[in-house]
Design goal:
Length: about 450
Amino acid sequence: MNNLLRSLIPGALVLPLSCVAYADFLADSKANLKLRNFYFSNDYRDRPGPAGQSRIEEWAQGAVLDFQSGFTEGPVGVGVDAMALLGVTLDSGDGRHRGSSMIPNKGDGAADQWGRLGVTPKLRWSKTELRYGTLLPNLPVITYNDSRTLPQTFEGALLTSHELEKLTFTAGRITKATGRGSTDRTGLAVSGGTRQSDAMVLAGVDYQIGEKGLAQYYFANLEDYYDQHFLGLQNTWQLAPGQSLKADLRYFRTTADDANKSAEGRVSGYRVGGFTESADGKIDNHLWTAALTYQVGGNAVMMGYQQVSNGSNFVQQSQGTLPDKGAGASSLYIYTDRMMAAFNRAGERSVFGQYSYDFAAMGVPGLKAFVMYVKGEGINTATGPELSEWERDMGIDYVVQSGTFKGLGFGWRHGLMHSDIDPNQVQNRVFLNYTLALF
């Protein structure tokens, strides 16, 4: 069966390569089926949440068929990757559904199923690879969201080069996104924006310092919204056998671009939501974060501080306020991007701490748990005093290590948020993950 799949899938995807020697294309190809069963519940407690709902509760099954080819022989190798994503609604109704939370809308309720297909041709020469098509970027300036049944995906081109020792160069142009609870592609935007940007252009370098140090610089331009510079510095020190200390420093500078610079452009929809100093939706923000993690045995304690400047909220691309509500959900490259809040509001100063434990240290490999607390204060408002919010998250994960169900993963997340701005919320997520290797 595996040999049959190995012959059929590449053949269906690479007919244009039939005249090219593609022995490595076949020999190095692999495919797997990723299954995720996901239950999601959000209780807004003392006041209604979006659309007057007091509760969101949904259950769905997701499947991702992921094929990755090798490369053809020769100085320039050619390959192709493909993803087929399918979500099936198991339970949602009685006013408990909200589109983009996890399941797309269909009429007044939830869709019975949803899916999409992504294909990514790729080229490789020397130590450089160019990919064009469906992408799952995980970079400081753009990070895909994978916190529900199906992942968010992007469309565009991404080049990664390792030609220089210890240095990785990345560049790309991203034009479209499809939300985790959607089948429709949209352009890019920011939270609060209602107009689509044509593209994000990005470039950056990662430079390894010593054995466990990393220096980063990235730049991204989200056309008509912002220019963003990122500086990052990480290092891990081995203090003793089984003991280490990690430091992580991050700084973002984000300023207005083109349409967001002009009053006319902002009025037309190229604006950021939340507080801005001139109450005009213009992007102008500094954000910096410092975090320390001390690990001994199975214990890890992380403490950190984050500060957002007064000009506007910190932003990265987000489709949540575009007319297609199913395009919502994005991830920010900050420690405080949690289950319900991101602590990225103008003026917000946050302290955070996390304790995690790996039970492998007690002879139970595959079992991990954590608890995290974030407190944000000094949030700017247009009409009143500075506001605050806090969130406490906890979770547990277990992956079966042997036997019939080896590789089956179980996870639970519980979050509690109190806010002067948003409704107080209690959220639970329960999920099962399993990856079946096809070849």
